[in-house]
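Entry 12.
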Amino acid sequence: MHVPADLRESEREALDHIRYHPTTHHADWDAVILMLKRLANVELSHAGNVAVVRMGDERLELAKPRSGPLPERDVLKIRRMLGTAGLLG
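Predicted 3D structure (tokens):
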């Protein structure tokens, strides 16, 4: 799978953040969810605080942080999913 050429700047920045930055850097929930919506099937809960991400055979459930950036464990999960799909190479 290849990264779509028509990703918006904010979506590409979120992808680059997941790809290149240390997991301790801030990854914004809204930016990451918008990026994932372009690359995967994303279902948000009614309140928008839980996202179920499906890409190929993989499924990932993410909870929106109460405050601040995505936790390191979620960044690592997203990074693994995108890597498995060939989007980080």
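Annotation: Residues 9-84 form one domain. The two ends are 10 Å apart (CA to CA).
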